[in-house]
Specification:
Number of helices: 5
Structural class: mainly alpha
Helix content: 55-70%
Strand order of the largest sheet: 1-3-2
Largest sheet: 3 strands, antiparallel
Mean pLDDT: 77
CATH architecture: Orthogonal Bundle
Distance between the termini: 14 Å
Number of domains: 1
Shape: globular
Radius of gyration: 15 Å
Number of strands: 3
CATH topology: Arc Repressor Mutant, subunit A
Oligomer: single chain
Strand content: 5-15%
């Protein structure tokens, strides 16, 4: 589920903001981060492609897994209670693979969990 960078970015944004976000809000932040520039500087076709991939692929996949709640009619996305736990568990796996002690993540708490 977290194999794609954009799905990780969606979760990171939702955990950072800890509130409802629109697909457009998520799209804009992801594009700005990926391109390292303001959304107004990005070609509209590229913005549209990212929006479509989020709306039809990445966000529904996360909703299917139960880590987010998604209303496609209103284009609203919000984290579920399992979102932070899933993020924390993903960090544990990443740290184990890299042979980094997991205690630092546990001590930081879920609030500081960034999955980039």
């Amino acid at each position: 589920m977290l194999s794609h960078q954009r799905r990780r970015a969606v979760l990171d944004l939702l955990l950072t903001h800890d509130q409802l976000l629109t697909v457009s809000d998520i799209r804009n932040e992801i594009i700005e981060k990926e391109q390292d520039t303001e959304i107004t500087e990005i070609p509209s076709e590229q913005v549209k492609q990212v929006h479509i991939s989020l709306h039809h692929v990445h966000i529904p996949k996360l909703a299917e897994e139960g880590v987010i709640s998604y209303d496609p009619n209103r284009n609203l996305v919000e984290p579920t209670e399992t979102c932070a736990l899933h993020c924390w568990m993903s960090k544990q796996t990443i740290f184990r693979v890299r042979n980094v002690p997991t205690t630092s993540v546990v001590e930081q708490g879920i609030e500081d969990c960034s999955i980039y």
